[in-house]
């Protein structure tokens, strides 16, 4: 395709998305390479410059895991959620709020846009309560597991985001929430992004991760388009496992609540974010109602 054709293919999308809100979830597995992370940030800044309201929610699971291991702690997950004791919560806050959030804000500044870093604690953005015990099947026995300081989001107050977006900032959000007594809770970043997209009435939710999209059981094919009911069946059938569970559930919640489409895209391939948004074929999985 000629270079001018590439630009012309993007034009109707740029027109359609102008002034619309897009929530981009940057997964920890899509941030392991500094150069790739920079590419993603460049894409996000470009979206801002073509007139979209861009909100970034980031994870950092692999870095939290690495820090825990370095401190002699064994990470454990239930359905993609990290069991979080007090020390783990402190590690998660240090990594997510202290390190990753700050790093992304600086990268955006380097790319010529303005960002403000937040966690769910700021401006009561994410109010949560401690998550109920989770049922886990071990062999034939079903057990109940306490996930510790892990939160279930009860309320989202997007006011602070509206203020920042109106002033042209890109809000960058770390997935830590606050409970009604002022205590912090660890939130899965996919869930946080989906709740924020829903509360903002976003046009799109884009999940950047380390796979090309939602795949079938033997991982031989990608689903480029999924409907809500198909995604439900895939979860019931156990085709979706681990970290993909909160991701797809989040996308389903968002789409079920009015977000037009939710996308799962490989963030480790250069400029995939732009290709998913501005080309006819797209590159990942698009979930719609
Ligand atoms: N059906 C599926 N299709 C694609 N990926 C899946 C599926 N089920 C589970 N996964 C896993 O989900 C992972 C992405 O989730 P996660 O590790 O939490 O990423 P992130 O850190 O980007 O949020 C993939 O690397 C893949 O191993
Ligand atoms: C409760 C819970 O699981 N919280 C996550 C928060 C970070 C996250 O979700 O990071 P990714 O997007 O990279 O997976 C965790 O501790 O890993």
From TrEMBL:
<feature type="domain" description="Aspartate/glutamate/uridylate kinase">
    <location>
        <begin position="20"/>
        <end position="266"/>
    </location>
</feature>
<feature type="site" description="Transition state stabilizer">
    <location>
        <position position="25"/>
    </location>
</feature>
<dbReference type="GO" id="GO:0003991">
    <property type="term" value="F:acetylglutamate kinase activity"/>
</dbReference>
<dbReference type="InterPro" id="IPR041727">
    <property type="entry name" value="NAGK-C"/>
</dbReference>
<comment type="function">
    <text>Catalyzes the ATP-dependent phosphorylation of N-acetyl-L-glutamate.</text>
</comment>
<dbReference type="InterPro" id="IPR037528">
    <property type="entry name" value="ArgB"/>
</dbReference>
<dbReference type="InterPro" id="IPR004662">
    <property type="entry name" value="AcgluKinase_fam"/>
</dbReference>
<keyword id="KW-0067">ATP-binding</keyword>
<feature type="binding site">
    <location>
        <position position="82"/>
    </location>
    <ligand>
        <name>substrate</name>
    </ligand>
</feature>
<keyword id="KW-0963">Cytoplasm</keyword>
<keyword id="KW-0808">Transferase</keyword>
<comment type="pathway">
    <text>Amino-acid biosynthesis; L-arginine biosynthesis; N(2)-acetyl-L-ornithine from L-glutamate: step 2/4.</text>
</comment>
<protein>
    <recommendedName>
        <fullName>Acetylglutamate kinase</fullName>
        <ecNumber>2.7.2.8</ecNumber>
    </recommendedName>
</protein>
<dbReference type="InterPro" id="IPR036393">
    <property type="entry name" value="AceGlu_kinase-like_sf"/>
</dbReference>
<dbReference type="Pfam" id="PF00696">
    <property type="entry name" value="AA_kinase"/>
</dbReference>
<feature type="site" description="Transition state stabilizer">
    <location>
        <position position="247"/>
    </location>
</feature>
<dbReference type="InterPro" id="IPR001057">
    <property type="entry name" value="Glu/AcGlu_kinase"/>
</dbReference>
<dbReference type="InterPro" id="IPR001048">
    <property type="entry name" value="Asp/Glu/Uridylate_kinase"/>
</dbReference>
<comment type="similarity">
    <text>Belongs to the acetylglutamate kinase family. ArgB subfamily.</text>
</comment>
<feature type="binding site">
    <location>
        <begin position="60"/>
        <end position="61"/>
    </location>
    <ligand>
        <name>substrate</name>
    </ligand>
</feature>
<keyword id="KW-0028">Amino-acid biosynthesis</keyword>
<feature type="binding site">
    <location>
        <position position="186"/>
    </location>
    <ligand>
        <name>substrate</name>
    </ligand>
</feature>
<keyword id="KW-0055">Arginine biosynthesis</keyword>
<keyword id="KW-0547">Nucleotide-binding</keyword>
<keyword id="KW-0418">Kinase</keyword>
């Amino acid at each position: 395709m000629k270079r001018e054709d590439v630009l012309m293919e993007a034009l109707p999308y740029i027109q359609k998305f102008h002034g619309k809100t897009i929530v981009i979830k940057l997964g920890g597995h899509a941030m392991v390479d500094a150069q790739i992370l920079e590419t993603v940030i460049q894409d996000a800044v470009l979206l801002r410059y073509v007139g979209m309201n861009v909100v970034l929610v980031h994870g950092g699971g692999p870095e939290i895991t690495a820090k825990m291991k370095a401190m002699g702690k064994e990470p454990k997950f239930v359905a993609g959620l990290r069991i979080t004791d007090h020390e783990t919560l402190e590690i998660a806050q240090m990594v997510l709020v202290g390190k990753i959030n700050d790093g992304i804000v600086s990268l955006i500044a380097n790319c010529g846009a303005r960002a403000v870093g937040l966690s769910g604690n700021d401006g009561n953005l994410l109010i949560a309560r401690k998550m109920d015990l989770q049922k886990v099947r071990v062999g034939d026995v079903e057990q109940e597991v306490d996930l510790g300081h892990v939160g279930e989001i009860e309320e989202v107050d997007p006011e602070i985001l509206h203020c920042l977006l109106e002033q042209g900032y890109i809000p960058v959000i770390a997935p830590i929430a606050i409970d009604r007594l002022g205590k912090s809770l660890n939130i899965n970043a996919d869930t946080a992004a989906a709740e924020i997209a829903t509360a903002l009435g976003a046009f799109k939710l884009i999940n950047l991760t380390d796979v090309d999209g939602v795949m079938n059981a033997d991982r031989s094919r990608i689903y480029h388009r999924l409907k809500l009911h198909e995604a439900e069946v895939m979860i019931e059938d156990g085709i979706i496992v681990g970290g993909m569970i909160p991701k797809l559930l989040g996308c389903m919640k968002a789409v079920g609540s009015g977000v037009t489409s939710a996308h799962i895209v490989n963030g480790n391939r250069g400029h995939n974010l732009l290709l998913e948004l501005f080309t006819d074929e797209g590159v990942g999985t698009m979930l719609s109602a």
